[in-house]
Amino acid sequence: MSATTITSSASSSASRFAPALLSVFFGLLIVGFTGFSPMEAAHNAAHDARHANAFPCH
Q: Given CA atoms 36, 42, 48, 52 in this order, what sign does their dihedral have?
């Protein structure tokens, strides 16, 4: 009984951690892509969003 409880709690925390880590990775990828994009519209949108969130960028 004890081994089942430990296994289920370990898999439960792992099943929560993986999607959270993947979301953070994709979020940083999207922000990095638009921030360094040569397309001026995408870069300006990212720039304005950074200022709106009080994140210094220059």
A: negative
